[in-house]
């Protein structure tokens, strides 16, 4: 029992520091050198911060290592050097940020010819990024004195690490007044315009893609950080330029130039979709789309429509269901996303966009593609969102797709005149009259029934078609323009009108009933719900190991946050009175950690199921009440 410990024995690192001729490489070979730096080992930091040592470290991360050795060994020391330079120790930050010769050596990396070594570029980006955060004033002042800085970064934008350098300048500069100064400087250097110039058919695809991603990140970062500049009257200059009509027009001109390419079109659409974002998933704040963006897009809608008709040629694709001779393609999918986004962001003041889409019969074309590409659920979702956007207010309940967003505060009384733009426009085709939405639903449903009765597979769009049908019925009964929709249904040919009434009363009603029963009995949403519950439990149970006074394994009461109940509610499309149907893509699963009671309580219009989840603190019973009559699902504990 009398073990002996020599707690004062010097480590091998200390022994090395005692040597008069110790080298930096010898110290870097020690496994604990980084930990000792972070632990503020005074002797080690004094050695590392010597002028020659710091120059050697910066040289390692900016110079191609010698060839002829194993790849993993070539970059061993550059990697350790980067970790030492970015370990966020004050004396290292001060030395690197305050010494101009060191900054010059670091900056020289940008002056190398393309292409840059991507690994070294990541070391450079991480190091300069750390300095922008920790030694902001010194580094920003140094970079602003470099006349060609931005040109060099954009020259190397095909290396993704250069995107990080730009985003650091936009998101990591504090305090707000200095951040605004930096943004003004970047705007004077025409950063936004120069990035848009890179989304051009004449540029290589990697450069276009990185420029597009950088623009998207700038837009989102600028919007997310707008509240940090509330005390400053001047708006974000980069965002102002990117939202301007001139800037969007330039992007569109590049996309639809004579030598236009699929890469240019897709990367351009990504930027436009970001500009049209009203709200991003996980963010409470909502945004208003600048009307100048829509004004710039409107003249080019005909070009987007043409892409749906004549997309870039693609080779036949082998799928699990056979060879697809004419794949839908990424271009048409992105155009469908754009149309859905435009319909969601359109308002009474932007009705010109909806009217132009109506004139072009774009919705009719999208419905053609919906039924043609039977198994492309990515497309089916976008078309469903388009229909929902036209038949507001259901659209406010279905904004799930990233890039489409949702308004945080929608008007409690939507403007009917706005909604009629695509539902019923006297001189233009309409969703019901020209697109024949009701007829398409009936014919597709009957065709699917016939195929299944003959032993064939259920059509891949049936889940989305069910939700589209429910959206029509919901708005026919309760929507703000239900009178107009009712009138249009009445004007249908007698045969279709009778078939529609029978379909709604019998077929659709029975489908909804079956989906509700399947939802309760087979727990189609249990996978989503239980995953959320598990994640919440994990967050509650797993605590940082930095509190010696608390036993993290002690049994405690688990309190479930509200969000653990919501995923399942949404996945059955019954949130906020949405139609009660199950998704076509949903699948049944049971929780391995849960114990199902398997009991349901039912009445005429209400079905109840319970599921008991076993946690470390005991059992938690989640109760799902489905009110079929009022199309609601409610979770309780």
UniProtKB/TrEMBL annotation:
InterPro entries assigned: SAPS
A GO-annotated cellular component: cytosol
Extent of Low complexity compositional bias: 583-592, 601-615
Molecular functions (GO terms): protein phosphatase binding; protein phosphatase regulator activity
UniProt-annotated stretches for the region Disordered: 402-423, 583-620
Pfam families: SAPS (PF04499)
Annotated family: Belongs to the SAPS family.
Protein name, entry field: Protein phosphatase 6 regulatory subunit 2
Taxonomic classification: Eukaryota, Metazoa, Chordata, Craniata, Vertebrata
